[in-house]
Amino acid sequence: MSDPSRSLPGTLGRLRALVAERGLEEEAVLDIAKLSRATLLDETEIRAVLAGQGSGGSDSSEEEAIKKRVRDRLVRAYRAYLEANRITFPEGIRALAARLGISEMWARQLVKGAKVPSVGHLTQLAEFFAVDLHTFTDTADESLNRALQPLLRQLQTDDPVTELMSEHGLSGINFRGLAPERRAMLAGVIKAVLEPEK
Known about the structure:
Structural class: mainly alpha
Radius of gyration: 21 Å
CATH superfamily of the largest domain: lambda repressor-like DNA-binding domains
Shape: elongated
Order of helices and strands: HHHHHHHHHHHH
Distance between the termini: 43 Å
CATH topology of the largest domain: 434 Repressor (Amino-terminal Domain)
Number of strands: 0
């Protein structure tokens, strides 16, 4: 679940700062294909959101916008399910219909984006596809923000200086701008100073 205190611009700003501090390639960290799989968003939509273009407005009502998101993401979830399980379209339909207790015809309409599932079925679909329920309904910004939170946490905890500072109650000190090799050297010094003598 995304950190409600951090908006997508805040999350991206912190991620990009960490990427720059570490000398990493942004394209490798913000892997569009992986983000697409995690969010069920189209890669073009992710690129637009990352470029600061937002998830775009719509002339339709909020209810219609949510229904469209659900239909589009169900189609992507089903494609990913077929690929991951290496099964045919009809095999997947049979499994989905059995899991939801619906007809194969209704299951087919759901995964082709022709119908919108009920709230109860949406919960079962999230379980079936092993995704967060909000993955189907959130805006692109919200969905992407949620998907970036684990990556942000990983980059923050992969930093030995940040980890040590936090561990020893010194997290208020700011070392931004310090070159990666100097950060590693500082982490070594801190560890050496804080280790008990043998």
